[in-house]
Amino acid sequence: MATLLILVFVLGYLLIALEHNLHIDKAASALVTGTLCWAILVLGWNHAPDHLLGAFQEFLNGHGHGDHGGLKVFFEHRLLHHMEEISSILFFLMGAMTIVELVDAHNGFAVITDRITTRKKSRLLWIIGVLTFFFSAALDNLTTSIVMISLLRKLIADKPTRWLFAGAVIISANAGGAWSPIGDVTTTMLWIGGQLTTPVIVANLILPSIVCMVVPLTIMSLRMKGEVERPDEKDSGELKDLTTARERNLIFVMGVSGLLFVPVFKTVTHLPPFMGMMMSLGVLWITTEVLHRSKSDQVRSKLGVVGVLRKIDTASVMFFLGILLAVGALQEAGHLIASASWLQTALGDVYLINLAIGLLSAIVDNVPLVAASMGMYEVAAPGTLDAWAGYFVQDGIFWQFLAYCAGTGGSALIIGSAAGVAVMGLEKIDFMWYVKRMSLLAIAGYLAGAAVYWFMFGMGA
What we know:
The chain is mainly alpha-helical. The chain has a domain at 89-189 and 227-309. Helix content is 76%, strand content 0%. The protein is built from 23 helices and no strands. It has helices at 2-17, 19-22, 26-43, 50-63, 67-105, 110-113, 121-138, 141-155, 159-178, 185-192, 198-223, 234-242, 245-269, 273-291, 297-303, 305-309, 314-333, 335-347, 350-360, 366-376, 397-408, 418-427, 431-457. Helix 10 runs parallel beside helix 20 (366-376) and helix 13 (245-269) packs antiparallel against helix 14. It starts with a helix and ends with a helix.
């Protein structure tokens, strides 16, 4: 079972990578891969790993089912457990995409794009990169990537150039999210779990994260020559005719405020982030309904949430669903925990282990990898005399470096992070194009930032 599961997963990734060569949409490949992985997990039950057999027996003892009926209920229970997390991510993504599209429908982003007057590629690259970096820390890398792609569509007309800037957005968004407790889901996990505290996250990770962004952008800017071509402003002019300056500014401010409200709502209520996103979307929905209630049905269909929802890229949501289902199956089969155990045995160094986890997160989602690490290593008691255990105290070196590596390592592949998957879906970026044009740049930044962290804390160890 284990070998077949990995084989199907690898083949699924190949189909995704060769999407444009095979002319098969990546969402279809991801859905087949995800459902097949779970089917193999269920049908290969007789060869399941010991930890899963133990979990099954514990489930039977607690629920009183027979073996056959219990097996069915057990796997339904495990699948629905993963679907809780997957659904929260998908609803969060859909909510963020809807808010961004709603602001765009009102031409709200003109507030920013009208102030970006430069057409020089290298200068624009730095403006986009720095904006993305700090937006990601204040919002999160997924939401920020969606916002920035909308901005890029207003600033750059030709697709090849826009794809390069989109690659820079992925790298900058992941780097910006790593040093903020609300910027990346893995950093948030470590923050909520008590492994890290806010002052340490910000103070110790901001410099490596900046370097992780600066190195790729420097190389890219040295290669970029000439000026960008702005898109045709015909559609923008039409939107300006449909909305007043007051309406555009109001929806822009409410949209950005709604996105910023999400981490605040989560901190206050401890509810999942998608709840805050739904709250923000609902308020915006009511606002636009009231704002345009006296306008014609044709105008309201363009400016209302119902009309905007038709523009949402559902295929990207399906792609995300398939990928996360496949990763969940690997997690259930124990492959991720086995990989973490192997890394500890083979490498035996916290820096090398985290570097490997970061690069592995470009292939397998970083959330279960960090979850596996949190499960393998408990937070050590303060003042421990064991040198190895000392790395695992609250705010210890292992947890800090794990936040950096898991947050930024996914940039190596476009499907290695939530930001990358969102950008891939929105811009229809080819997997192999990203590998050829962006992967080495992302890895260079990742390793440079890691080196900075090691010089800061590891040289004297």
